[in-house]
Amino acid sequence: KIGEWEVSQSASAKALIEAANYLKAKDIPVAFPTETVYGLGADATRAAAVKGIYSAKGRPSDNPLIIHVPDLDMLRHVLQPTANNGATNGSHDHIPEIYKPLIERFWPGPLTILMPNPIPSRLAPEVTAGLKTFGVRMPASPLARSLIKLVGAPLAAPSANASTKPSPTTAAHVLEDLDGRIELILDGGSCPVGVESTVVDGLCDPPVVLRPGGVSIDELRECPGWKNVEKAYKDHSESGKAAPRAPGMKYKHYSPKARVVLYEATYPDLHKGVDQQALELKDDSNLVGVIRTRQWGMGGGFSCGDFNGQEKLVAPLEPDSQPGVELEVREADLYKSLDGATIGKLLDISIGKDSRSIAHGLFSALRELDRRGADIIFVEGTLDDEDIGAAVMNRLRKAASQIKS
Ligand code: TXA
Ligand code: MG
Predict the structure, then answer these.
(1) I want to staple 311 with a disulfide (CB 3.0 to 4.6 A). Which of 265, 283, 336, 378 is the partner?
(2) Taking each helix axis from N to C terminus, what angle separates 355-371 and 389-400, rounded to the nearest 10 degrees?
(3) Which residues have CB under 8 Å from 76's CB, separation 6+?
């Protein structure tokens, strides 16, 4: 069945109806596109269906899921305690005031907000993993919203990757991770944003960002009540003792198979970093991946600095590659500069200069280098830490850290 979906570029109404009927009848989740990344969806009101998500992904059961709604009516419905069935209190819609400017400005779009979970709740307890709140967003993708409308219930959906892998931004990525574990993928092409939604908690004072994502902290600050929003995620070190506020942030994440080496700082540091790492390379048949953002104006060659004390690993590069939607992998020989002996291949990907295109290409590039069997991946960070670049750096720091769950 998966084959039929794979080939369809834009899911037809028929495909959507089939997927919706499947979600209503079965307890196996369906992967679907959103503007951020692909989600692995199940009816959030049915416990058996939600359990199916955790088992397909291999996700720890204490990591809550966010729910997706197509419109505010569905959100209002979820916010009503079930005991109160149908009896809406006209003057109060249960949406906390603090969120109204965000909803107005960013929905539908890549922003997840935490809401108080009513008691008793329509949501299966597995969605919230025992927390008193649930995360919710209204995705911008019309395809995603149509699917949820057809199901007639909110869809709980984490990113559709196997736990610990980079989030999928194409249907092929989903298939790579979940083939044999799910039966349906709705293929909506590649996800325009490329990193997950920003998760915020406005139920505390000051409000906080739990995960940086598609909506930047600067944009949040422009909204009434959000001027003093704080970051509640760890950026540079994951070793702190305080328990992370978003349970998912404590797990190993975004990790390709290859070791990832991230250059955070300036150009000279890049050389220093490579020196140390290069020494651990095999002697021949190395496959070295490089993901460039070209924000640092790197020249025409990639240099690995000192190798075994004296020699250099260098590879020629074409100076200009187009930052683009399509991933282009350049191959070059990797050789020791002094004796010129080839000791492997360099796989070089440019994902663009501006932070939007970097975000769009990042997970794809990590996965592509993995697929080609890279031994090590060198990544240039972005300099821009407030825009969507904050989300990019957050994901890269996790990919480059050795932290295990
Ligand atoms: O863009 C996205 O948000 C994608 C697409 C599919 O919508 N979804 C996604 O879901 O990234 P997931 O499960 O991979 O990440 C959700 C994050 C996790 O870090 C989780 O711990 C946190 O949100 N989260 C969910 N519910 C929460 C809650 N009630 N309190 C605190 N954190 C919560
Ligand atoms: Mg995820």
Answers:
(1) 336
(2) 30
(3) 88, 93, 94, 95
Pocket of ligand 1 (CB under 6 A): 34, 36-37, 39, 63-66, 110, 112, 114, 128, 131, 133-135, 157-159, 196-197, 199, 210-211, 246-249
Q: How many Å lie between the centroid of ligand 1 and the Cα of residue 383?
A: 26
For the question of whether the overall pTM of this predicted structure is more than 0.80, the answer is yes
User: Which residues have their alpha-adjacent CB atom under 5 A from ion ligand 2?
Assistant: 159
CATH number where 47 lies: 3.90.870.10
- What CATH number should be reported for the domain holding residue 331? 3.40.50.11030
ipTM: 0.99
Q: How many whole angstroms separate alpha carbon 67 and alpha carbon 123?
A: 9
Residue 266 has pLDDT above 80, yes or no: no
- Tell me the per-residue pLDDT of 117-162, one tens digit each, with 9 for 90 and over: 999 999 999 999 989 999 999 999 999 999 999 999 999 999 999 9
**CB neighbour burial string for 182-193, b if at least 16 within 10 angstroms, e if fewer:** bebbbbbebbbb
Our count of domains for the chain comes to 2
Best residue for ligand 1 mutational test, from 112, 133, 143, 147 (most atoms within 8 Å of Cβ): 112
